[in-house]
Amino acid sequence: MKIELAQKFAEEYNKIADAVYFTPGRVNLIGEHIDYNGGLVMPCAITMGTWLAISTNEIDSYRLKSLNFEEKITVKSAEVQDKKGGHWANYPIGIINEFLKDGKKIPGLDFLFFGNIPIGSGLSSSASIEMATAFALNDYFNLGYDKLDLVKMAKRVENDFIGLNSGIMDQFAVAFGEKDQAIVLDCETLKYKMVDLDLGNHVLAIINTNKPRELADSKYNERVAECQKALNLLNEEITLHYLCELTAEKFALHSHLIKDEIVLNRATHVVKENNRVHQAVKTLNHGDLKEFGRLMYASHQSLRTLYEVSGKELDAVVDYCLTDEHVLGARMTGAGFGGCAIAILERGFEEDFSKKLTDFYIERIGYPAAIYISEIGSGPLKL
Ligand code: GLA
Fold it and tell me: What are the residue ranges in the chain where pLDDT is below 50?
């Protein structure tokens, strides 16, 4: 890909790219809608991701082009801060804005991106393009930020520039991912450890529902607000910074403060899901994949009924998996409202799984899903 992108760069800008970088996407194995509630999550980087070729230019502007989109964007440094909203180019522009706000000099630059993460599929194409830009500029200009600084910077872009009140999991996962390892991240303290993701006789399948994520950002922000509401109500009796500080027992003692059934359901999901991640870490450490799979199914059920971020497409995938004896567990991954599910599947049954799931899915939904067998990749690289 490095060579192809460098060639395209030469065609696009009539010069040679100075450097090429890669940053992965991610899946989250378990711990969904937990990061902004201060709990434990378990994502890992995947081998799909974003490639970026860059070089300085003499025109004192930033030119951005992606092989995934038609248009080419040109912005002057004085215009960078005005470019807010969810357009693809605003993710890298938001990162440039952060460096400029921090007093760094970023001269005119030409960017060429290519991503093979299906966009809006819940595999963090946005965190990947943000971190690709942050990592590349930091390296290219020797700016001296550490990886965690860049992760926090990309989260600020997502929250303040793009307008999604997301947590830190995606940016952290694409920056800190390591091959064949899952990250166990405490989103309150940002302490983390790597756990061997030894799937033995199993593989990780990613199933893209191919459902466009309509209104996903506004519904996501609504969930964040509902959790904040639950937190405020609980704080009438106890002092909490995050819902995930609650054990199930403590939550049971104070949940009477939450009278609204929907808000109560959201908080119940958060407390139980956080607990499931703690159990999932233990099961992985003991190599008990069967129990891990059971926790995945339980997580999906909770996201479906209590947190209400699934949908008929994601449910169809998981409903099929429940009938397949070669699947140990499955669940939606990422924000939800469409996007991808993941499944732990017995090695050797990939084709059988694809065929049966495809038939089931088309019958129920009317169009096919896309199925990939995923490898666990590593974080950003200069190629
Ligand atoms: C999106 C957000 C993350 C996280 C997940 C849900 O991917 O960007 O911060 O909240 O949804 O777990």
Answer: none
